[in-house]
Design goal:
Blueprint lengths: L1 H5 L7 H23 L1 H38 L19 H13 L2 H15 L13 H13 L3 H4 L1 H14 L23 H34 L5 H49 L2 H17 L1 H5 L10 H27 L5 H28 L4 H11 L1 H10 L4 H32 L6 H17 L6 H61 L1
Helix pairs in contact: 2-3, 2-9, 2-18, 3-13, 3-19, 4-10, 4-13, 4-14, 4-17, 5-6, 5-14, 5-15, 5-16, 6-11, 6-14, 8-13, 8-14, 8-19, 9-10, 9-13, 9-16, 9-17, 9-18, 9-19, 10-17, 10-18, 11-14, 13-17, 13-19, 15-16, 16-17, 17-18
Keywords: Cell membrane, Membrane, Transmembrane, Transmembrane helix, Transport
Pfam families: BCCT (PF02028)
GO cellular component, one term: plasma membrane
């Protein structure tokens, strides 16, 4: 039928078509409700987030610690030498392109937004006394918490379990179905619980759309604040125009595909990130940035486990749940999409190489960026005005105010808008690539189906501009993350089972062929000697 071709579903099974319509319909209905009743949706999302964090913040903190231990155990055991795609697989992308795609997809504009908002927020509302770190200034402690949440161990806890499981089970072991539910292989057979795999894929799609919508919402509101406050423009209307332009670029990228579309957008975004950070070093409070950054780094590294496991149960508040619990829930919501995408672009690399490009290298990059951004807004002369702007108009206004009072701030603002636009494009590109792939079970989904998913995500991004509070859109990912938190442990165990069996089969095959190879070698030697 022609309609299946237009939707990119001509080769899809009936179950896959139902999956497409159910997910698309549910998320479109939620987005429409947001446009028509933004206040009601804001209250609904905020209330759901508060319940999740108050009741399960401790669970996310514990789960993150457990995942960290398991990830390191798998990476640096004999399973770390497994190559994604099999022993003969060759890397599809060069090192810079590979790192660019992993970095820009895995972090988004949160580095800019939360790099300003979190340190300022913690300085204004620090943890209850006594502080988790004694002897450190509140500024250093605030930046140290930022390092914990978005540098390390946050990087290692959430994306890598999914990337490992997807890479080992789908590519190395070769289960055949390019779906999130395939990661249940080794744990439960598809036929044992009818409908389980389909339900897992549905939940994965909803969580992925929710997680991406959160970042698009952050990005849209921050872009509107910069355009409106720094350049004195009609921010909302202009932001819709920018989104339309981004949409044109996105559709071009969809037709160009993974190599020429997503890869080039990611590489360009990395260039803008480098330029903006270099300019910030020149025009910002340089000495203070480096001094505070180094002091906070000492606090972070010497108190790593204290900070990541801090809950303060005797205070009666929810400070740790609202920060660490929120961050871990957000990472968890993103993990399904980012982990599977990282596995897709990491074919030909080993598990340990994937660890380096997903954890080690981004740790260095994000540490430098947060050191500079945090030191910039916490410096004397900056901290007060930025805090006032955030208290009066929310987190997006904070970054706009910081730009207003910085020398050459308009130039820096242009670079920041380019960075945010680049993050939006790469996030949209990679998200719809994986969402469509999961829906169709196809490693290289057709551009028509990807375009429909892209339209849905862009619709969510624009809807977020209608919400009253910045905190409302961030609630979506936190709420979506809870059902998938236990799933992360299940698939990590499944990847261990599959990796163990795969290596056992490989070792057995090697043992069976070795005597034959030895006899052949001896025979050849004897013949050569007779000659």
């Amino acid at each position: 039928m022609k309609v299946w071709h237009v939707l990119g579903l001509e080769d899809a099974s009936p179950a896959e078509r139902v999956l497409f319509f159910v997910t698309m319909g549910a998320m479109f209905a939620l987005g429409t409700f947001g446009f028509l009743r933004p206040s009601a949706l804001s209250r609904l999302l905020t209330g759901a987030k508060n319940v999740v964090l108050q009741q399960f913040g401790w669970w996310f903190i514990l789960l993150g610690f457990v995942l960290l231990i398991l990830v390191f155990a798998l990476t640096f055991s004999r399973y770390g030498r497994l190559r994604i795609g099999g022993p003969d697989a060759e890397p599809e992308f060069g090192l810079f392109s590979w790192l660019s795609m992993v970095f820009t997809v895995g972090f988004g504009a949160s580095i800019l937004i939360w790099g300003v908002a979190e340190p300022i927020s913690i300085v204004q509302s620090p943890p209850p006394q006594p502080y988790p770190v004694q002897g450190a200034s509140v500024e250093s402690m605030a930046l140290a918490f930022m390092f914990v949440h978005e540098v390390f161990p946050g990087l290692a806890m959430w994306y890598l379990p999914v990337a490992m499981a997807f890479g080992i089970i789908v590519y190395t072991h070769g289960v055949g179905d390019y779906k999130i539910s395939s990661m249940l292989t080794g744990v439960v057979d598809e036929g044992r619980i009818p409908g389980l795999y389909w339900a897992v894929d549905l939940a994965a799609l909803v969580a992925t759309v929710g997680g991406i919508a959160t970042t698009l919402g952050f990005s849209a509101q921050t872009m509107a604040a910069i355009l409106g406050r720094v350049f004195d423009l009609q921010a909302t209307v202009l932001t819709y125009g920018v989104f339309a332009l981004i949409g044109v670029v996105f559709l071009a990228d969809v037709w160009l595909g993974l190599r020429d579309g997503i890869r080039n957008a990611a590489r360009m975004t990395m260039v803008f990130i480098g330029l903006s950070m270099a300019l910030l070093v020149v025009v910002g409070p340089t000495v203070f940035m480096f001094e505070l950054g180094l002091d906070a780094t000492g606090v972070w590294l010497s108190n790593l486990f204290r900070l990541m496991l801090y809950t303060d149960p005797t205070s009666g508040g929810n400070w740790a749940a609202n920060w660490t619990g929120f961050w871990w829930a957000w990472w968890a919501a993103w993990s399904i999409f980012v982990g599977s995408f990282v596995a897709r672009v990491s074919k030909g690399r080993t598990i340990r190489e994937m660890f380096l490009v997903l954890v080690a290298a981004p740790t260095l990059l994000t540490w430098v960026q947060h050191l500079l951004i945090g030191g910039w807004v916490l410096a004397p002369g900056y901290q007060g005005p930025v805090a006032q702007a955030m208290a009066a108009a929310g987190k997006p206004a904070a970054i706009a105010r910081a730009l207003q009072i910085t020398p050459l701030g308009t130039v820096l603002a242009v670079l920041f808008v380019c960075v945010i636009a680049g993050y939006i494009i790469t996030s949209l590109d990679s998200a719809v690539f994986m969402i469509s792939a999961i829906t169709l079970g196809d490693e290289d989904p057709n551009p028509r189906n990807r375009a429909w998913w892209g339209g849905l995500l862009a619709f969510f991004g624009m809807m977020s501009l209608e919400l009253e509070k910045f905190s409302s859109i961030q609630s979506l990912s936190v709420t979506m993350a809870l059902p998938f938190s236990l799933f992360l442990l299940v698939i990590l165990y499944g990847s261990y089972v599959v990796a163990r069996d795969h290596l056992s089969e490989t070792d057995m095959s090697d043992a069976e062929t070795q005597p034959l190879l030895t006899r052949t070698s001896d025979s050849d030697s004897g013949t050569a000697g007779d000659d």
